[in-house]
Write a structure and sequence with these properties.
0% helix, mainly beta, single chain
Amino acid sequence: QVRLAESGGGLVQPGGSLRLSCATSGFTFSLYEMGWYRQAPGEQRELVASITRGSNTNYLDSVKGRFTISRDNARETVYLQMNSLKPEDTAVYYCSRDFPPRYWGQGTQVTVPS
C-alpha cells in the first residue's frame, strides 16, 4: 500500500524558513519522480517543485531561488526546504508521486501571516 506522510508545516513569520518532509512507504521510492504541490484557500492546487529519479529538479517560478526540493532514497523521503517565506506561500502543502499524480499525502499546513 502506497503511503505518503507530510510533516514540518507550521506558522512562520515572513522571511522565515521551514523544512517539509514526506516519508513514504509501500513502493520502491528510488524509481519514482516525486513532487510537492500546494493549495491555498479558494485556489487550485499547483505544482511547487518536482524531482526526478536522477534528482533533476523543477520549480514554480515564484519559488525559484527560495525553495529547494531534495530526496533521500535511503530514507525514502522527499524534502522541501523553504526559505524567505512570504504570506503568499500560505497553503496546504502536499507530497505526490507520479506525474500526473496518482498518490497524495494528507497535507501539511504552512501559514505565513501578513
